[in-house]
Amino acid sequence: MNAENFQTSRCITLNILRYNPQDKASEPRLQSYALEAADGMTLFIALNELREHQDPTLQFDFVCRAGICGSCAMMVNGRPRLACRTLIADLPDESTLTPLPFFALIGDLSVNTGKWMRGMSERLQTWLHAKEAEPDLERIEERMAPETAEAIYELDRCIECGCCVAACGTAQMRPDFVGAVGFGKIARFRIDPRDTRDDDDYFELIGDDAGVFGCMSLLACHDMCPKALPLKTQIAFLRRKMALVA
Ligand code: SF4
Ligand code: F3S
Ligand code: FES
């Protein structure tokens, strides 16, 4: 983005789903806001402008503003995206913003991904099951092959934004589906040489229709992941491995 683009501005319209599930009188509706936005702005900045100058009641989440915390994910014209990584320049003159489906709605564009992610992590035990009670991580890191460390790092880039789950048709039909984010976590520990679990243990966790056998290879998760995690490869690999255990 160059300085010239940043100075280009136009009037855009944001149609935003407004709804407060805590308020019995509230009914879901689209509210339209017009604002003058520079093309170099992110959608996150535009939403802040709206909240500051037009409507202080508008609810949406953010923490980092840099694509790291995962909290600003929302549906932008029907696709899950991070507001802080979405440029106004890439949006049409009129856009519709709705909250991520699947997750509990807090209000307007704000959803509780954290609660779901915590439940998924507990269910899939997404922590290191170490060989030793107090592993000497420094020593073990030394032994880890660089390509293994790189593969783990790649999967650890997940920011738990929920875009993969929001994009997934299976997740919309199965509330207990662990989603691509869950598969990514399992894949991460499966390749970690410090973890004691074997494929039988992983089968216990994801070898059912709420896990890999519920996945219909729709691959919207892969296409919509804002961190471009290798979800397609990992899901295909896990499916093959779990089919061998079954
Ligand atoms: Fe977000 Fe990608 Fe992690 Fe899914 S896998 S939660 S889309 S970063
Ligand atoms: Fe859903 Fe991704 Fe499988 S979109 S169906 S988890 S390939
Ligand atoms: Fe943290 Fe957008 S505000 S990812």
Q: Could you explain how this protein is built, in words?
A:
With 246 residues, the protein is an alpha+beta fold. It folds into 2 domains: 109 residues, Beta-grasp domain (Ubiquitin-like (UB roll)); 114 residues, Fumarate Reductase Iron-sulfur Protein, Chain B, domain 2. It is 39% helix and 16% strand. Strands 2-1-5-3-4 form a 5-stranded mixed β-sheet. A two-stranded antiparallel sheet has the order 6-7. The relative contact order is 0.12. The model has no long low-confidence stretch (mean pLDDT 93). The site of FE2/S2 (inorganic) cluster has 12 residues, from loops.
Number of helices: 11
Describe the strand arrangement of the main beta sheet, using strand numbers.
2-1-5-3-4
Beta-strand percentage?
A: 15-25%
Distance between the termini: 50 Å
Rough outline: elongated
The second-level CATH architecture of the largest domain is Orthogonal Bundle
Q: What percentage of residues falls in helices of 4 or more residues? A: 25-40%
Strand and helix order: HEEHEEEEEHHHHHHHHH
Structural class of the helices, strands and pairings? alpha+beta
Quick rundown:
The chain is of the alpha+beta class.
Please give a handful of descriptors for the protein shown:
single chain, alpha+beta, Ubiquitin-like (UB roll), Fumarate Reductase Iron-sulfur Protein, Chain B, domain 2, 2 domains, five-stranded mixed β-sheet, binds FE3-S4 cluster
